[in-house]
Amino acid sequence: MARFAAPGQEPVRTPPAALVAEAARRPGGWVAELDRALIGNPDGYIPAEAIRGAWKVDDAGQLTGEFQPHARYGPLQDDFTKLFSTDHFLQWLGHNPAATIRESSPRLSTNRCQARLSGG
Question: Hey, CA dihedral for 49, 50, 53, 57, is it positive or negative?
Answer without folding.
Answer: negative
